[in-house]
Every structure is written in C-alpha cells, then in structure tokens.
Amino acid sequence: MQLLSSGHILCRILCGQFGIPFWKFFLATLIGKAIIKTHIQTAFIISVCNHQLLDFIENEIIRLLNFVPGLATVLPKLVAKLQIIRNKYMAPAPTVSNIAVGKWDFSFASIWNTVIVLMLTTFIIKIVTATAQSFLKEQQEKELALYNSSFASSSSSSKTI
Q: Within 10 Å of residue 106's Cβ, how many Cβ atoms?
C-alpha cells in the first residue's frame, strides 16, 4: 500500500479548513484517482513495456519531429543517445544475489512515513468526530423542535381553559 504524499495530505487539510464537504471531496478524489489516473497509468505502463508499441510511438514522434525546422539535423544524435539509454533500462534484470539483508535502521523516510500515518490518523478521527457531532446536532435540533411544539401546544391549551 502506498502512503499518501504530503501534497495529498495538505490538500485534504485545506479542503477541511475551507469547509468543502467530505463526501464531495471524497467522490471527486475517487473519480480522479480510481477512474482517470489509473487508466492513464495503465496505458502508459502498457505502452512502455510493449516493445512493439514503444517502437511505433518512437518512430511516429521522430517522423513528426522531422517536420520541425532545425531539429532534423540534431535528431539523429538525440535518437542515438535515447536508444542507448533505452537499451540500458530495458535490459534484462540482473540475477538476485544471496546477500543477507542488514537490520532495519531509522531513516528520514521511515520517520516521514510515521508522521504521515499519524496525520492521516488524526484526520480520520476528526472526520468521524465531525460527522458524529453534526448527526448529534441534527438529532438535538429535532428533539428541541418537537419539545417546543409540544410545549407551545400545551401552553396554548392551558390558556384556553
């Protein structure tokens, strides 16, 4: 499971600060992340890992860039450098060694992830608390309205007697 970046957390805190309803924010985030972002990432990964499709995309980009004035002379050198880089990263993975892994030590990343988890925990607690308080407020307002209406009807009936 991937932890949220500080940008996501800051965005959530600001949404809460400026009074954007949780469900409106949650549904917008869900649509953005689950529907839009995942499909773009899936298409990107498929295109990068599919050698035939990657070659096709590269050839089309090179063909289009040949029409740009001044790039036609620089393009062969650039393509050669990019091919070297591509071959370096697309090479088969090296074999796994039998080196024993050392003990886990504290690092900035682990401390930062702990801070993020604590912030998320307090954020979730605040959401639950705010939801419970708004529900309780609505319930108390209904009870108060019912009490006031019954008190008003009983006081008006006592005045007529």
A: 8
Which phi and psi angles does 66 have, rounded to 5°? -65, -25
Chain Cα centroid distance, residue 53: 28
15 and 25 Cβ atoms separated by less than 8 Å: yes
- Per the CB < 8 A criterion, the answer to whether 37 and 44 are in contact is no
Answer whether 102's CB lies under 8 Å from 111's CB. Answer: no
- What is the identity of the amino acid at 158? S
Residue 12 in tokens: 């959530």
* Sign of the dihedral defined by the CA atoms of residues 97, 99, 100, 106, in that order: negative
The pLDDT score that the predictor gives to residue 158 is 59
Look at residue 1 in the predicted model and tell me its pLDDT.
40
Q: How would DSSP label each residue in 83-138?
A: HHHHHHHSSPPPPPP-PPP------HHHHHHHHHHHHHHHHHHHHHHHHHHHHHHH
CB 16 within 8 A of CB 119: no
The conformation of residue 5, written as its DSSP 8-state character, comes to: P
What whole-number distance in Å separates Cα of residue 127 and Cα of residue 154? 40
Specify the pTM: 0.33
